[in-house]
Design a protein that fits this description.
The chain has three helices and no strands. With 58 residues, it is mostly helical.
């Protein structure tokens, strides 16, 4: 998943990093929600990451 999640560290920098990657359409930012297909970057990927972030990146 996301780098800091793998390390067990989650902070504002992770959120900002994701936002920047999402805007650029980078693959890791577009695969959180795959209901529209792998690699499709849409608002559902953003919301999926946001939910994971709030939950502490389970």
């Amino acid at each position: 998943m996301y780098q800091s999640c793998a390390l067990g560290l989650l902070d504002l920098i992770d959120y900002l990093c994701f936002q920047n990657s999402f805007v650029r359409g980078e693959p890791y930012a577009c695969d959180c929600d795959t209901t529209t297909g792998a690699g499709v970057c849409d608002i559902f990927d953003f919301l999926c990451f946001q939910d994971a972030f709030v939950a502490g990146c389970p």
